[in-house]
Amino acid sequence: MSTEQDMGRMVPSLALLRTLPMFTGVPDAQLETIVRMAVCRKVARHTTIVRAGDHMDSIYVIIEGNAKVLNSDADGREVILSWLGPGEFFGEMGMIDGSPRSANVVASEACELLVMAKAEFKQCLADNFDLCLNIMKSLVHRLREADRKIESLALMDVYGRVAKLLLEFSSKENGQRTIVRKLTKLDISKMVGASREMVSRVMKDLEASGYIQIEAGRIILNLD
Asked: What is the CA radius of gyration of the chain?
């Protein structure tokens, strides 16, 4: 994985900020301040945007693309803690408590990011309650997700964990639950805490039993 390399920088627009959930309820006067101090940055697929142990000096919002939050051990084995998509952000915890980054964030595809420096963003937090509330809601959501993941790891077997993950990643498309995001068996194994071989067996069993169909890079869930 490469370290962060810019593919280009642009100045964000007021219209862009209005579309991001982080800034819901924030008045235009405050958004105009953020426009002046933020930049848009493009990074290539597989770019390591931040590394575990880094001291965070910026907060990042994903405008386009997806990124995965992961950790690895000394032997190079990885666990994917979460996936982040458009509108989601990272770096806020280190900015709040001053601790180093606890995980790596890697672009799983080419991404466009909104980047705000720590000092300026903390001033925006001090000036706007709605922005603080949006950050807190996101932190609560992540804590609930972590609780659910711990519960599934403790109480479900690999079949249950894989099935639960597929359901969480699916969305309605033409009346069917479909996963359109590229999700490899290796990715799944890193998220459910099982070997790639075990995940392959589970996926084959689910497909043979008619619970899923894999076609044209998509996974279709048959729930009826």
From this structure: 19
- pTM of this prediction? 0.81
Question: Is there a contact between 46 and 104 (Cβ–Cβ < 8 Å)?
Answer: no
Please provide the average confidence, as pLDDT, over all residues in the chain.
89
Pairing of strands 67-72, 78-84: antiparallel
**What is the strand order of the sheet 8-10 is part of?**
8-10, 38-43, 111-117, 58-64, 89-90
Question: Which residues, other chains included, contact 180 with Cβ-Cβ below 8 Å and sequence gap of 6+?
Answer: 171, 173, 217, 218
Q: Which residues of 97-119 are buried (b: 16+ CB within 10 A; e: fewer)?
A: eeeebebbbbbbeebbbbbbebe
Which position has the higher pLDDT, 224 or 13? 13
d(CA 120, CA 140): 24
Using N-to-C axis directions, what is the helix angle for 129-155 and 118-127, rounded to 10°? 110
DSSP class of residue 4?
A: P
